[in-house]
Amino acid sequence: MDIQLEHFDKSIQQDISIEPKDWMPDAYRKTLIRQIGQHAHSEVVGMLPEGNWITRAPSLKRKAVLLAKVQDEAGHGLYLYSAAETLGADRDDMMDKLIAGKMKYSSIFNYPTLTWADVAAIGWLVDGAAIVNQVALCRTSYGPYARAMVRICKEESFHQRQGFEAMMMLANGTPEQKQMAQDAVNRFWWPALMMFGPSDDHSPNSAQSMAWKIKRFSNDELRQKFVDNTVPQVLQIGLQVPDPDIRFNEETGHYEFGEINWDEFYAVLKGQGPCNHERIEARRKAWEGGKWVRDAAAVFAQKQARKKVA
Ligand code: FAQ
């Protein structure tokens, strides 16, 4: 066996993290660029549905919290683009691919935020789902990705708590507010379950990613963990899970849940979700509109580098 491959396999087996300068199989590098790139795009596209409510937040406190949260998501995008760059990915190329529809981002951000309760639902359910996935990624085999996840998870837990608190306030408010909260849960529950990806028997990348310890748990395992964590929270604030099949199984200690609408999931992935076009258009405008800033920053960096040499 090739000595480099043998060393890589041994590191994976022994849980020694793979670092940017280490030799790694091309397919491992490619998978990581795909996953980290998609993850970075999700963080940045994910700013759009909530950003939509910054000017309409119901109080100064909610506005300040939302502003901080949306800024955090931009920061997460930056760590993740940097992590992808350590693998040789080029940021301009990743952006071009996102805008051309050649790179994915999380399906969840193709749904609109129709009311303030939807913003609470994103914090609570979407960040809640993201944390379940990302806590597992803190032990992913590629060092820079794992380290980025540690910091991101700390911030995501604040996001989840603020979303839960905002939703709890609505659920305990007037009958109209409670209904608004329930409607938001109805809209976001199933798309949040879809965030974990296709079921294990339809997930083409899982087996190899698990073998490389990029993924530590399967899509279905993480989805189940999210359901088990979240159903009691829904019930605690007096709302209902919009799934007639939800039921606690005393024997397994897990909640059983109904069938996900996979046709909807794949349609969203193909660009047919309610906001796919709008999201990509917003990113295209921001990318093109920000060109002069990137150009100016590049010239400044060159000048600074020349000064150092001189
Ligand atoms: N949406 O074989 P698998 C956040 C794709 S962060 C779109 O199972 P894999 C923070 C998948 O890429 C949310 N595409 O793939 C926040 C693959 O595409 P391919 C993002 C999806 O990679 C909160 C194909 O389907 N988090 O929310 C989705 O082994 C609030 C086949 O799937 C991450 O990205 C989907 N839901 O497992 C921000 C976490 N699911 O091969 C703002 C890191 C699957 O055609 C506000 N990523 N696909 O290129 C992962 O853990 C994995 O990539 C999975 C998918 C689990 C998402």
UniProtKB/TrEMBL annotation:
Superkingdom field: Bacteria
InterPro entries linked: Aromatic_CoA_ox/epox (IPR052703), Ferritin-like (IPR012347), Ferritin-like_SF (IPR009078), PaaA (IPR011881), PaaA_PaaC (IPR007814)
Claim: Transit peptide is one of the keywords in the record: no
Highest classification ranks of the organism: Bacteria, Pseudomonadati, Pseudomonadota, Gammaproteobacteria, Moraxellales
BP-aspect Gene Ontology terms: phenylacetate catabolic process
A GO cellular component annotation in the UniProt record: cytosol
PANTHER family from the UniProt entry: 1,2-PHENYLACETYL-COA EPOXIDASE, SUBUNIT A, PHENYLACETIC ACID DEGRADATION PROTEIN PAA
Name of the protein: 1,2-phenylacetyl-CoA epoxidase, subunit A
